[in-house]
Amino acid sequence: MKAPTWPATVTLQGEHVRLEALSADHTMQLSEATQDGRLWELWYTSVPAPEQMASEIKRRQDLRQAGSMLPFAVISLMAGPHHGKAVGMTTYMNIDAANRRLEIGSTWYQKAVQRTALNTDAKRLLLTHAFDELDCIAVEFRTHVLNHQSRRGIERLGAKLDGILRCHQLNKHPAALSSVRDTCVYSITAGEWPAVKAHLTHQLLKAR
Predict the structure, then answer these.
(1) pLDDT tens, 3-36?
(2) 21 in Cβ contact with 91 (< 8 Å)
(3) Domain spans in the chain, listed from the N-terminal domain onward
(4) Hey, which of 3, 46, 169, 174 has its CA 20 to 30 A from 204?
(5) CB-based contacts of 50: which residues, under 8 Å, 6+ apart?
(6) Is the bond leading into 194 cis (omega within 30 degrees of zero)?
(7) Contact between residue 64 and residue 57 where contact means Cβ atoms under 8 Å apart
């Protein structure tokens, strides 16, 4: 009998966001979301163009079947025109079940909801589930060394820089400044989680 996939599929809901299993049903709304800010043109990150959305969803679902990713659609619960709509994606990825470690990554949001309480809420939900339910010993975050917006956001969470993987990946984006990517690796450990959780909760209370 095949062992159950870790982590199991789950829906996570907070005050500002709901994270639900990514499916083909989200294709149209996510195609519209990526056009807000023309996110696929950003050279330092990897966001699917509208016409690539269906294949990107399928790719992430295939990784789920392989046990290396748990992909979510990010559903906004914030008041306004995006309420109830899929506004981005996020995942648990690089899953190491044997060592109870994983990475939160492959995340993007449409421009209208960036730098809002939605992201803080989403990260708190993912981290809470990872540490309090899955008993992870550490959670990683990775980003391009020159993606300063992403690095600042990760650091605001309370994650610490473990190091930089130099010439870590090939960067195939046509607008990339270099053909190779240096990757910053951050993490939050189980011992650090209580303080990080209190910090995120305080940030969400301030956002009300």
Answers:
(1) 568 999 999 999 999 999 999 999 999 999 999 9
(2) no
(3) 12-206
(4) 46
(5) 31, 32, 34, 35, 40
(6) no
(7) no
Q: Is the full-model pTM beyond 0.85?
A: yes
The strand pair at 101-109 and 86-96 is best described as antiparallel
CATH class of 12-206: alpha beta
> Cα 100 from chain centroid?
18
- How many other β-carbons are positioned within 10 Å of the β-carbon of residue 153? 19
Return the amino acid letter for 38. Answer: R
Burial of 43 (0-12, 13-18, 19+ CB in 10 A): middle
Helices (H), 27-90: 27-35, 53-66
The distance in angstroms from the start CA to the end CA of the chain is 48
8-state DSSP, 171: -
Q: Which two tokens stand for residue 50?
A: 């509208």
pLDDT at 178 over 70: no
